[in-house]
Amino acid sequence: MSSAPRVYLAGPDVFLPAPEAWLERKKAICALHGLSGISPFDPLAEEPVHWSALPDWHGIGLRNEAHITGADAVIANLTPFRGPSADAGTVFEIGFMRALGRPVFGYATTARPFTERTTSHVGLHAAAERDPDGLLVERFGLFDNLMIAVGITGSGGELVTEELPPEQRWSDLAVFERCVMRAAAKLLR
Fold it and tell me: What is the pTM of this model?
């Protein structure tokens, strides 16, 4: 019997209150749908001894890269984080997995287009073409920056979004579960 496909759970979830418990809930949803969720908090089976001497931030980054390298796919929380776009670390993890040639799935608890979120965040009229620094506002009608969309679609993955009330954006797992179901449908074929 083959083992369940391993999916790395990327996202700013590590900054939530009680993040370990939250990620365990996400791993349980993955298991329910035949996938094995990998949390950034999970220990590595064979972590190099010299990593213990590194600064915390360096060890965390190397551990996350090792988890991604050992995964079959990424499921990324792309809910805008501290601004109009996805968490920068999560975007790196998407690119890292894409470079490995493996599927990337994403979800977000908002469906507002990137342009709308950007103009609102910067305080611009919705039709403004440039921001206060004179830089062009991306207007492709996508959920986020075009490279995130290319990374997901080019990998064979999917993006699942839903507009939830702001007070539920960091506490609702229904959109995540729909993304897991889409990932399972592709990975378990």
Answer: 0.94
Question: What's the one-letter identity of residue 166?
Answer: P
Structural domains for the chain: 6-187 (3.40.50.450)
Q: What is the pLDDT of residues 161-170, one digit of tens each?
A: 999 999 999 9
One DSSP character per residue, the chain reads: -PPPPEEEEESGGGGSSSHHHHHHHHHHHHHHTT-EEE-TTSPPTT--GGGGGS-HHHHHHHHHHHHHHT-SEEEEE-S--SSSS--HHHHHHHHHHHHTT--EEEEES----HHHHHHHHHT--TT-SB-TTSPBPP-S--SS-HHHHHHHHHTT--EEE----GGGTTT--HHHHHHHHHHHHHHT-
Q: CB under 8 Å to 130, separation ≥6 — which residues?
A: 136, 137
**Tokens 């592709």 belong to which residue?**
186
- Check: CB of residue 178 under 8 Å from CB of residue 107: yes
What is the Cα–Cα distance from 144 to 38, expressed in whole angstroms? 25
Q: Strand pairing of 159-161 and 104-108?
A: parallel
104 has which bridge partners? 74
